[in-house]
């Protein structure tokens, strides 16, 4: 087999793994969008915020230390304890739920019945706000996140592929774990949305919140729940990306990558988010591999968007979205 | 029957002109659902033509076909003596067909005056650069059309709300503004989609008066959909009755009123 | 009583459709122009020009541009930074290729080229709506920045990958390059800002503006009453991109002088201009100025208070700024979606009655 093709296969697999992570973030978008019609631009910043909080709790950082020091002239930074990974994750989840409550209480409760585009712009404001809060709370330096997930090259795959192609594929253990977690998460969410009472209420709210209100569903409860779920998905995504490339601002940019994923998959479709994520992940890695060197590289910056744009021109509702029927 | 190609005069002395629009064997399907099935009728110049029928009979779809929003799978639309090719809605509008909507479709963020001015797109043709400069042709055109629009505003008695944003108006006034916008286009045919839906008796009387006045004053041909039978019978010269996408009656109000199919459709038939 | 329109009767439609129908507004507008042209150039220094006046004027042009697209035509764009980059690089290529041609013409041509690119990326807007389109404009943002970063022709194969504005003059006075006097740069930008604002105002009060607003408020109804949606949207993209391109050209040539594309015209720039439009007021030319002024002044004031007065570290103040801007955006969307412009209108209504509110 020619070398190019084998390398291409390796790129393909790595693209699949990246795609899973894109899909994971996109999933958070779909959840919120389906239940509230809000297109949550802040999803990526939520992932960053979750990862920052997790690291901060594990390391025993004092929240807002920077600000406190500046105001009172003190020099405090750490509590001096370390919190084990699992407990820290739980605590972070509590923070994310509190955040969900606050977001609903102070922002979106006041924006009921607004046009989607206004809601969208509000989430951009939320993203800025949260980014600032995250930085002030935990500091803006790049942090390492290690909750004990396996990392590094996967031995068996390396060996297996070496035996077949005489060339060992580099597949990161972390990516494999991420794929597994993403798959479990998706299954859990689908089951939750389809079969649980809350899930059904969630879908009812998504369809028509006034009708839902009239049959006795608490909108506030559902919305807080949905934002909490999105916070949970953000936490998982934050752990994966944070472990992979450190907790830093660029983490919030993966949210932007999830947007073309959604355009491709359709904003309301969970399978769409997954398939879209895989297509984008594989597509951009293969494109960079095949075309990138000829045009100066770094095509990953725009490939996903241009692909989604071209795709939308021909199928405006996305791969799995429902057909848009216009009426007067 | 007399030859009526060149028009005729009705019993109460109204002059009806020749056929201006003719629908020939229109069939419209959405997927497997047949919304309109093989319907033909015509609209004559200067008349008030009503389309009636129970809910879901396909009346609104018919209006949408006339205004170019839906494209029928079969059949032809003839307008002013020529077959109309497939057109986009804005092209139809530029041929002089204006309409109002069942669920008011005004531009909520704009003032009443601006809304009515949008009806004049057909008349205002100054180019981009003229508009960018404003002084000169664009301003002259704006003023001339403003005068025309102010006449319509006077006519429909909405002077006092001229500069109010449309979003703040009550329902009845919105309906009137929408009529003003359609009239501003100086249309050859004016389509009214349930102009009196959701109105109380007084508002209906006002609206009926406006419709008759428009027809009288400007000689505008009007095709309207309406549920209120009394209103329809009083206003219109001829009526098309639809049921389940089919035409079941066509003629003067009196003829339609005595048509057995129509009575069955409205009152129901005993099935044995 | 401070602000009145009673007794200010109009006897013609010409008088009724002018830019400032109320006498008081008109006089104030003339006063601002006179101060701007005849007073400020004599008193300002480098700090004021570079910290406040140049960014204010240039961002005002960009905000007017985005407001036409988003506020008037209802098409949200997140590609403003990318389009500004087009203006900047077009201006740079023109300046270096035709040194003998006036810089004014280069800036306007750069706007024209940006208009063309804008139309190209606006084409999908006929099929894609709402935030689908917003996300699609991100494609323009990322692709354009990448293009100027990676294709050496655009930066004339310079080793640093930066572009530097050479010295160009108007009436013998340098307006770009390191020798530029503060007042010259200021006046050059002011003239262009006034020019752009006038054109924007004329377009938005006439038929063009009504077409845009009709598309914004209800696109299907607009089409049925005779607006060609493709033409309306593309003209909005073209006009908007022209202004944004002019702003980009000025930002590079007059304000910064040297530009690295990712830094100067990244996605944050797109958001900054969008925020100006939201805070200032969607669908208002005055709002574009207000929003630009607000977001130009905010960091200056914060730095004065936070860093210089309280002695806090710079990065802390920068983070606080993020929080404040984010909170303000949300606050404005909740309380006053029409932004500062609407607050101003309300204030005027109050002043009309003051001091006798009953």
UniProtKB/TrEMBL annotation, chain B:
Keywords: ATP-binding, Nucleotide-binding, Transport
Residue ranges of every copy of the ABC transporter domain listed in the record: 21-269
GO cellular component: plasma membrane
Alphabetized Pfam families for the sequence: ABC_tran (PF00005), BCA_ABC_TP_C (PF12399)
Listed GO MF terms: ATP binding; ATP hydrolysis activity
PANTHER family (UniProt xref): ABC TRANSPORTER ATP-BINDING PROTEIN, CONSERVED COMPONENT OF ABC TRANSPORTER FOR NATURAL AMINO ACIDS-RELATED
Protein name: Branched-chain amino acid ABC transporter, ATP-binding protein
Organism: Roseovarius nubinhibens (strain ATCC BAA-591 / DSM 15170 / ISM)
From TrEMBL, chain C:
Topology of the protein relative to the lipid bilayer: Multi-pass membrane protein
GO cellular component, one term: plasma membrane
Pfam families: BPD_transp_2 (PF02653)
InterPro entries on file: ABC_transp_permease, LivM-like
Membrane-spanning intervals of the chain: 27-44, 50-69, 76-95, 101-123, 130-148, 180-200, 237-259, 271-296, 316-335
Taxonomic lineage of the native organism: Bacteria, Pseudomonadati, Pseudomonadota, Alphaproteobacteria, Rhodobacterales
Compartment(s): Cell membrane
GO-annotated molecular function: branched-chain amino acid transmembrane transporter activity
Name the UniProt record assigns to this protein: Branched-chain amino acid ABC transporter, permease protein
Keywords: Cell membrane, Membrane, Transmembrane, Transmembrane helix
